[in-house]
Amino acid sequence: MPVSTTPVGGLRLAVSVAALMAVATPSLAETFYLKEQSARGAGRAYSGETADTGVSSLWWNPASIARSGREVYVGLHGLLLDSGVDNAGSTLTYPGGVTVPVTGPLGTGHEGDPIESGLVPNFAFAMPVGDRFAVGISVAAPYNFTTKYEPGAFTRYDALTSELRSGNVGLTAAYQVNDWLDVGAGVDIQYVEAFLSSSLPNLSPLLADGRSTLEGDGVDYGWNVGAQVHKGAWDFGLSYRSEIEHELDGDVNISGLLGPIATGNVASEGTASFTTPWFASASVRYAVNDRLTLNGQVNRVGWSKFDAIRVQYATGGDTIVQDYEDTTGGSVGFDYVANDRVTFRGGVAYDPTPTQDGERTARIPDGDRFLYSGGMSIKATDAITVDTALTYIALDDTTISSDRTFYAGTPAATTSRLRGTADGQGIAASVGVRWAF
Where exactly are the transmembrane stretches of this chain (predicted)? Predict the structure, then answer.
């Protein structure tokens, strides 16, 4: 859909945050959410996590620690990504109707590997209090990425650099109701830090572009609840993680605008609010025998909560529609106990994109994806277990289409029509250590 932008601080802040929070990478479960929260879970494509017990499943279900004992988990996921974005006829229309093609440096239309590889850490700790009660704490990075396009890229009026860092601290309590039912609840404290840059067109192709940058951060809160049932060979789990209403306080700088639009060069403060999605998960584990366990999980994600960016600034406000859709994905997998020291895992997951055709920008090169995983756990000692996993992520090819009008409502109105295609794939290597003591 067309997005109207003007060179004023508050509205520019909203556009920046909207774009930033919609960047996708092949390593993500869906759009800007990181699925890499457990090395053990990665080995079976995150199937059965809501029904499994132990501290490494704490992100998925607060009830998982009700009967795990005193335990620490530390994990690290390395993401090696291969992505590309290609021009498919992007244009810029200046005042008076003159339309020119938008290309990259030296007329190229390909941007290779705009999504940077990186590391994702996790930590969790659980401790029993009495016979039936347990408390836990977890640290995760649910939203964490960097994307960089080359200076002068054909995407420049939509995106140059996007960086998002998040830290989520979860405080959890769980209770063993009886010999088959566990319940749990938790509070999330989430910090988000962001940086974004992009180009702004001047009023002639002979003039250099202007530049817009944003830096902002904020801390906000959410909650989660869950339950597990353990009956013979069967384990069932349900969990719900709430949406979080975020508000970023930011500094916006716009420079390099010339001539009639030079008054748009500003350094301003403002806020932009948006809501991240809720997550509902249901999973089952069935022990076929003493060695083989089958796992299945369904995830419903409330992406429609990310419906708009709402802006407040000194002289007014605005709302920018995002129009994401709720999604349903899932995974199946297995655990196979080879002996008393070694367990093998495998799984396949499907995660659909919440973005819609015709509303996908260079900051949202997101498509449906499949995850294919394999892993292994080794008991190094009676107390220490090492989990490893390797996941291949296949992202469907997708189209980019975004119309954007700069300086709308003035004689300087300039329209960017971004058209492109995107593809990607990735490898995630995961390692984690669980220590029961």
Answer: none
